Amino acid sequence: MPSVFMIYCQMDSFLTPTRVFETRTTIKNSRFIAACAPAVGREQAKAFIAARASLNSDANHHCWAMVAGQPQDVYQHDQSDDGEPRGSAGKPMLNVLTHSEFGQIVVVVTRFFGGQKLGVGGLVRAYSQSVVDLLESVESQCIVPSVTWQFCVPYNLLASLEHGLGVLNCEVDNKEFGVEVTLTVRVPTSDQQLLEQYLQKLGQATIDITVCP
Q: What does pTM read for this prediction?
């Protein structure tokens, strides 16, 4: 049974870069510099895009794509062709991101035009492959979306509770010892119902749960 819980807990997890990464390639004399960074929200993503444009201010294009939240949150998805033919850069870049395991990420591909046109199909391939190569080189960390719960348990239930929290991949952030033990716990969002059922069964419906903001 614990192995089943482990698989369930990891279903909503995703990867995000640990820091800024960059790769470079040249296609028909055009230089492409692809860079990515972790981005929690659109503001962080936009700041990185502006920084890359400033760093390579003499480039012809700074095309970008973002998945600036959890991968399934389409409101955090966005892209731009930045002057390239419509649909030839930002959209294929975003397509690579949405078919990857990454979230909370922004990617900018800077192009220095080399004098030879690539055509729309060539641009789609160039920008897509730039992102593919970049993601293959990225050092990443796994993010498990979570919420914070707080609840009190009697001392005689503490050992059993801590074992159950471990099975469900919950992390205990704090323990306070008083008349009872007050626990502050980070719970994977996909496992809230499982944990609630476990707590109620363990405490015979006497454990009160507070979901912290």
A: 0.72
